[in-house]
Amino acid sequence: MSSTTIPFETLSQRIEQIFLNVGACPAQAGAVARVIAKGERDDCKSHGVYRIAGLLRTIRAGKVDATSDPVLDDAGGGVIRVDAQGGFSPAAFELGAPVLAERARDLGVAALVINDCTHFSALWPEIEALTDMGLAGLAMCPSYAVVAPAGGTAPLLGTNPIAFGWPRPDRDPFVFDIATSVAARGEIELHRQQGKPLPQGWALDAEGQPTTDPEAALDGAMLPFGAHKGSAIAIMIELLAGSMIGDRTSREALDYLGSTTILPNHGELILAFAPERFSAGGAAAAMASAETLLGGIEDQGARLPSQRRFAARARAQAGGIPLSDAEWADLDRLRDVGLDAV
Question: Record's family (predicted)?
Answer without folding.
Answer: Belongs to the LDH2/MDH2 oxidoreductase family.
